[in-house]
Structure formats: C-alpha cells, structure tokens
Amino acid sequence: MTAAPQQWAEPEQTPPVTLTPETVRQHIDGIAAFIGGAANVVMQLSHPPVGYGVVESTVDSGKASLHPVKRLRTTLTYLAVAWMGDDEDRAAYREAVNGSHRPVHSEPGAAVKYNAFDPNLQLWVAACLYWGVDDLYTRMRGPMEPALAEEFYRYSARLGTTLQMRPEMWPADRAAFQRYWDENIAKRTIDDTVRDYFNEMIDLKWLSPVPRLLFARVHRFGVTALLPQHLRDQMGMTWTAGDERRFTMLLRSVSAVWTRMPTIIRAAPLNTCLSYMRLQRRLGRPLV
Asked: Within its chain, how far is the Cα of 69 from the centroid?
C-alpha cells in the first residue's frame, strides 16, 4: 500500500504593513519628545551649517533663547504635522515654516555657509529626528517587528519631505540609513560658539529660576545619556556605567506606565499640537 504524499503547509506570509496618519499614532510616544528633544537638537546643530543657522538667526520670534515655550510648541507641531497630518496640514505648515526660514541664510563671506532651504541640511535634521525616535522607542518598548520597522522608517521620510527634502534623498531602507548615519554622525563637531548655546539650553538658562532649579540637573543627565560618546566628549560631559544603569532603570519605569496608556494619551502632546494648529488655520491665525 502506497502512502499518501505528504502535504506541506504553505509558509505563512507576513501581511504588508502600511502606516497612515491615523495608524502611525499607535507607534508614537509623545513623551519621547521631552526625554530626547534637547539631545536631538545637539545632534542636529552639531552639523555646523545647521548650528550656525540657528545661533546666528535674525528671526527673533523663533529663537528658543527668547521664546523657549513657543519654540518648543512649534517644533512639536512640526513633528505632529509631519507624522500625523494630512496633505492640507502639511502644505499649510510648510508655507508657514518657509516664511520663518526665508531670512535664515549666511551672509556673504561668512566662515560657515548655510541656508534653511538647503535640502541636504533638512535631510540631516530629519535623520536626527528619526534616529532619536527609533532609539527611544527601542529603549522603551524594545525593537519594532522588522516589517513594521521598515514601514515606519519609510513613512518617516515625511520629516524631511514636509519641507524641501526630495523623497529620493531619503536612504532607501534602514540598512542604507544606518550607513548614512554612521558616516555622518562621526563627522559632527561642536565648537565654542555652538557649545555655549548648547550649555544654556541644557541647563535651562532660558527659563525662569524655579523650573531651572527643579529640572536643570535631571535635564543635563538625560541629554548626556542620549548623546553619542564623541559629542559627549566635545561637550565636556562624563558618563559612567552606573549612569547608564540609572538611566535605563528610569526609562523602564516610565515605559511601564506610559506604554499601558491609551493611544490618545501616548500620542500626546503631538495630537494636541496638531488639533491646535488646525484650529489656528481655520481661524486664519499665524501657525508659527
């Protein structure tokens, strides 16, 4: 008697992952903007044309040193619009940001040349933002499932294309991005001018005495934790294995609470910033 041929089950196919402005909210931790925001600014501005563009900017209404709360709100709103906004939101906010960026360019003969409309500089800023979010997501939740990680990476091109970065400039996949990141972060440097700016920001010198007294020390601790070692060295920061353990425990404690929250809370304050921007647009008020 001949045995029936063995039937092999078809291998399971992983369904493709597609993110939209609605579904991406499930993977956004708004608290990460507060935990990692300042360290991310250091990485962005360690590229001299970006750093000098900010430090030398003549647009007083957008200076963090003069209007720290407003600057934080506009930055969070940009992240919210780039990730969770629809095409109309992105077009409106692009126009508003362009208005602020128009005067931001170096003067003839400047030692450091920059222009806020340079798509290569926008690529670097977008790369820093994506890297920071991915780093904190992994620290707080563990790594994303591979298909989701690739889709989230692809979707995050919006961090640059919401302005002038062309889609084809975004590295093709996460492996290509890692090569771009490793090559470029190693080149970043911090000179005295930008270091002074960073120290004022890190030590909350732009805030009133009470929040400065309460939060400056822990703020510096968090910034130091999230910087690459060569940038810590250039900032004169020290970091020990004990510091790393304390920071890891802190993030795990935050994550244990935060990741159990409903999506609407986990996405805050980005979803709130997006709603506020839409209200301002309907009322015809300035967006930045």
From this structure: 17
